[in-house]
């Protein structure tokens, strides 16, 4: 690449190498190692590995600087070498990657598939990287209905499989744990009272208490695989009566932490006999390695100001777990993609009669034996141009994979930005709709 190969002995030579890599390859595939000695010095240095945003070490102790590097690089796998400053043999190392306020200097070492560092505190003079394509997975599978333990075990298997196939964002349907209560659309409020109570009691006892360890399996699976997981759950309120259910969706980051928790604002029609009304504390867009993501559940997506709350926070990957399906719903997803200039991931519920538990009450009356499908799924992925790029998956159990270019959600807003240059607040003086005012 240069007359010195890949060796840079000072800041100017290092910059020359980086600029050449960016120019010819559009990203740094081999990583950048800045050091005085080519080999690792075990007495004064330590090597850490980062896999899909999560750092690993020999003794589980991860310096803050390594966590910062892991948060700033999108590469699937690379290593980070750390050396104490002021040690003999290290004083001549160029402070090109010296992090302010830290006792360490970081060196981005050669690693498989390693990508160049992002702009930011690490070094603002490196050319900004080009965002690579991101692989997402939509899980269109049935849960173990009314069985929390079985559903969570199945979800972990599905996460492991999707991750093994390269997915970085994995989305589950509405109320996946322990299943969407589809029976509410067939039960009569009066004469079916006893059946309603029996099913509701089982749903309540198998719902998720977020103050407990109920979701630990999912958190561990997300962190272990280094993936972001968005999952719909029946949530049991733990703060008040401990008897109210909410239709919720949680976002788990690639470190295995819940970074957003949203409760459906307005349950639809008979859903109000099952779930309480949500609030606005979860109307947030969060940064993930796959882009800025936000979620609305099912018919919340028909609420213009709820959508606008996500648009105004710069949502790039708009996630819609849902029980709805059909041509009308697909058209809605396309409209939202065009309106918000964002990627839309709609994850539908695929449910067959055989998925119901064997002891489901009055099953033959509610779901006759000749009725195979209860809900068809119809999951799909829509581009910021409103084009369906993957799916819909109709009446099948599957994982829908798609590769998305997140940068399209930014460049598409040149012509139409409904929360920006196209919003005209001077003419339409709405009160501020954002995640702060809605809390």
Topology:
Layout: H1 11-25, E1 45-51, E2 54-56, H2 64-72, E3 77-84, E4 104-109, E5 134-140, H3 148-164, E6 169-171, H4 193-205, H5 216-225, E7 228-236, E8 245-252, E9 258-263, E10 286-288, E11 291-295, H6 304-311, E12 317-322, H7 326-340, E13 343-348, E14 350-352, H8 363-366, E15 373-382, E16 388-394, E17 398-404, H9 408-411
Parallel strand pairs: 5-6, 6-7, 11-12, 12-13
Antiparallel strand pairs: 1-2, 1-3, 3-4, 5-17, 7-8, 8-9, 10-11, 13-15, 14-15, 15-16
CATH class of the largest domain: Alpha Beta
Mean pLDDT: 81
Oligomer: single chain
- Write the CATH fold name of the largest domain: Nitrilase/N-carbamoyl-D-aminoacid amidohydrolase
The chain-level structural class is alpha+beta
Shape: globular
Helix percent reads 10-25%
Order of helices and strands: HEEHEEEHEHHEEEEEHEHEEHEEEH
Record field, number of beta strands: 17
Number of helices: 9
Taken as a percent bin, the fraction of beta residues is 15-25%
In total, the number of domains comes to 2
Distance between the ends: 54 Å
